[in-house]
Design goal:
The protein has helices at 2-22, 42-48, 71-77, 108-111, 246-259, 276-281, 300-304, 323-331, 404-407, 427-433; strands at 32-33, 36-37, 52-62, 85-98, 103-106, 114-120, 126-128, 130-135, 140-144, 166-171, 179-190, 201-204, 216-219, 224-231, 241-245, 269-273, 290-295, 311-315, 318-319, 338-345, 348-355, 363-365, 376-379, 394-399, 415-419, 422-423, 441-447, 450-456. The chain is an alpha+beta fold and 457 residues long.
């Protein structure tokens, strides 16, 4: 009888909703039907939305037309001098996670190449934001504003999420502030999409559109479970959206706040998924794990005893189902951290412990050091190069056509020997010598058999 009564109550509520939708003039939707309150997310939304902010950026980008850079083309066709840069604007979202210090998490692509970043709160207050740090490989950035009376959102444990959990996305799609959409978690651990270098996405059907990037994905308790990041579709949402799990974002945020950058350590292995065919070849009953395909000589993995053919099934007690999960787990560890791996070798399980080492950086995008170097790729002078052992410095491996680095005079094959009159012998030295906020860089360049100074500004 109680079940029948509940069904009648639900049917009555649905009838009321339908009648109000058809004839809104009859009156507002009642708060309750037959004494039972109608479900609503309004109290939770009211509590969380003040922590979701609108981010507006301004910057400059190179004009990508090589013909306009050709003086002969301009003179022959009478084309006037073209501006080599254009102003850019961008909109996105962010989430206040620390009201006391004014820290905001967003996506790196929201603030990429931004020279001005402004944050607008729900109550209309606007503040300039300082970029604390960004991690392009995971698409996470941390901003800071100086403001009173901020509201922060509580961060949940995203590892506890399950497919089918209800979630709510909050952001500023198309500049429409404080837009709220809802849906469910439709998949977990999505990777291999080619969106970021480190992927462990939450997939949801909550509608996410351009401008939602960096916004909040919360559970029904109003706790932050993810940072909305990407969609699949040519122009807008088609029910497949992706968010960075908050556990990943939180670990990256802590490093950015502490050091201004994320320094991923090196384990020294190449891994691949454990497929059913490989499991059969290794005479394993399970088909989930990461297979060690190669171990670098002298690496932390070799010192820990890892061997090619080992199947890693957990890292620091976290189950590993595929190679991307192992890469993410190790990639979030700080240099010097211990990593405990449970592996299967020859049908027997064993536990190995390694210590994450400093990465061997041999190539890097130069814009990570300074915007004056945007468009250049730097490389170590490797053994086998005709320059190896003859000159010390950092090799300019490539320069994009029309980029700022090219306009500043850099050429592929240049060797940077000093920056601001301080010698550099490695890519690591570049990061130590170049200071944040440098208005200009004075480079001493070795170009073939000649040397010159370049002033980049």
């Amino acid at each position: 009888m109680q079940s029948i009564a509940r069904l009648r109550t639900v049917w009555s509520a649905l009838m009321v909703i339908c009648l109000v939708a058809v004839a809104p003039a009859w009156g507002a939707l009642p708060q309750a039907v037959d004494g039972e309150e109608l479900p609503t997310l309004a109290p939770m939304i009211e509590r969380v939305t003040p922590a979701v902010v609108k981010i507006a950026t301004r910057g400059r980008a190179a004009v990508e037309n090589p013909l306009f850079n050709d003086p002969f083309f301009r003179r022959f066709f009478g084309v006037p001098e073209q501006p080599r840069e254009r102003q850019t604007q961008g909109l996105g979202s962010g989430v206040i996670v620390d009201a006391k210090h004014g820290y905001i998490i967003t996506n790196q692509h929201v603030i990429e190449r931004a020279e001005e970043i402004n944050v607008t709160l729900r109550d209309g207050r606007q503040y300039p934001a300082t970029l604390i740090g960004a991690d392009p490989e995971a698409d996470v950035a941390v901003l800071q504003i100086e403001a009173e009376g901020l509201t922060q959102v509580v961060m949940a444990d995203s590892d506890a999420l399950q497919v089918g959990d209800f979630v709510v996305a909050i952001g500023n799609p198309f500049g429409l502030s404080q837009t709220v959409t809802s849906g469910i978690v439709s998949a977990l651990g999505r990777s291999g999409l080619g969106i970021e270098s480190y992927e462990d996405f939450i997939q949801t059907d909550a509608s996410i559109n351009p401008g939602n990037s960096g916004g909040a994905l919360v559970n029904l308790r109003g706790e932050l479970v993810g940072i909305n990041t990407a969609i699949i579709g040519p122009s807008g949402n088609i029910g497949i959206s992706f968010a960075i799990p908050v556990n990943m974002a939180r670990g990256i945020m802590e490093q950015l706040i502490e050091t201004g950058e994320v320094r991923r350590g090196r384990l020294g292995v190449m891994v691949q998924d454990l497929t059913p065919d490989l499991a059969q070849a290794f005479d394993l009953k399970q088909t989930r794990g990461a297979v060690i395909a190669q171990v670098e000589p002298g690496s932390p993995a070799e010192k820990a005893g890892l061997e090619a053919g080992d199947v890693v099934v957990s890292v620091n007690d976290r189950p590993i189902h595929r190679a991307s999960e192992m890469r993410n787990a190790v990639g979030l560890l700080r240099i010097g951290s211990e990593v405990k791996m449970r592996v299967i070798r020859d049908g027997r399980e064993r536990t190995l412990v390694a210590r994450v080492a400093e990465p061997e950086v041999t190539q890097a995008e130069a814009q990570r050091f300074s915007r004056h170097l945007e468009g250049a790729t730097l490389s170590e002078i490797k053994e086998g190069s005709p320059l190896f052992g003859k000159i010390e410095g950092v090799l300019v491996a490539a320069v994009e056509q029309g980029s700022r680095a090219q306009r500043n005079g850099l050429r592929p094959g240049d060797v940077i020997r000093s920056v601001n009159r301080q010698p550099v012998k490695s890519i690591g030295d570049m990061g130590k010598v170049i200071k944040e906020g440098d208005k200009a860089l004075l480079l001493n360049i070795q170009r073939g058999n000649s040397a010159l100074f370049l002033l980049l500004q």
